[in-house]
Specification:
about 80% helix; about 240 residues; mainly alpha
């Protein structure tokens, strides 16, 4: 049951966050059900599910059920989306997708896949953790703190997003190898590099925005890393 859940979750994270470019999201919000990228998004999810589940005929019904419900949820979200409710809709949307995954898994329990030899629970857990640390966390943080973002300044395109991904991956690695001191070094290094921005800021907005973003990024990374270690412990006891 846990193996199938992780496979479905991995496919979901891959399709919803990694393989969905920003211009797809923009097109869907503007054109809604008429956007070709809405259907392209469904095709990506379908392909991800088929690949992760090994093209097994017994899972075809589950795949089409997940895709149908995913389409209904995403379409409803597009028509309900407003600037003031985008944060809550983001989390409700993801919660519904996870509940569907759990429901489908329950229908197929107990379950045993031939791909278990290659896609071990530990590997799938690591894959899910990496996707959560990178694409998911970046989008979640953008949703949570976008309303406080200061006026745009000249900077490399998407540099902040990729810096945040790298810092969370470093924190994850430090926790997994039980090197908590590394987090302190990383925080100190970031503070040094950000010192100029903080001292040159004309008001407190930029300082507070950077502080909120840093604490949120570090907090998410620590939470995901601890969840990953806990899951490994559960998997170890289940053997």
């Amino acid at each position: 049951m846990l193996i199938l859940t992780l496979k479905l979750l991995f496919a979901h994270l891959l399709g919803d966050f990694v393989l969905q470019p920003d211009h797809w999201v923009k097109s869907k919000r503007e054109s809604k059900i008429r956007s070709p990228f809405l259907y392209g998004h469904m095709l990506v999810h379908t392909a991800a599910l088929f690949l992760v589940l090994g093209f097994k005929e017994r899972y075809f019904i589950a795949i089409w059920l997940i895709i149908l419900l995913h389409f209904i949820i995403d379409t409803a979200k597009l028509y309900l989306l407003r600037k003031k409710n985008q944060r809550i809709l983001f989390f409700v949307d993801q919660l519904l997708h996870v509940l569907i995954i759990l429901a489908v898994t329950y229908l197929y329990y107990p379950d045993k896949l031939e791909w278990d030899t290659y896609l071990t629970p530990e590997l799938l857990a690591l894959g899910c953790a990496v996707l959560l640390l990178t694409s998911f966390s970046s989008i979640a943080m953008k949703v949570l703190i976008s309303k406080w973002k200061p006026k745009e300044e000249k900077a490399l395109k998407n540099a902040g997003k990729y810096i945040g991904m790298l810092e969370r991956l470093f924190i994850f690695g430090f926790i997994v190898i039980d090197f908590w001191q590394g987090i302190g070094f990383l925080l100190a290094a970031k503070s040094i590099f950000r010192f100029g921005d903080l001292t040159n800021a004309k008001d407190r907005n930029l300082t507070e925005y950077i502080l909120i973003g840093t604490l949120l990024s570090f907090g998410l990374a620590i939470l995901i890393a601890q969840g990953y270690l806990l899951l490994l412990d559960v998997l170890g006891r289940a053997v």
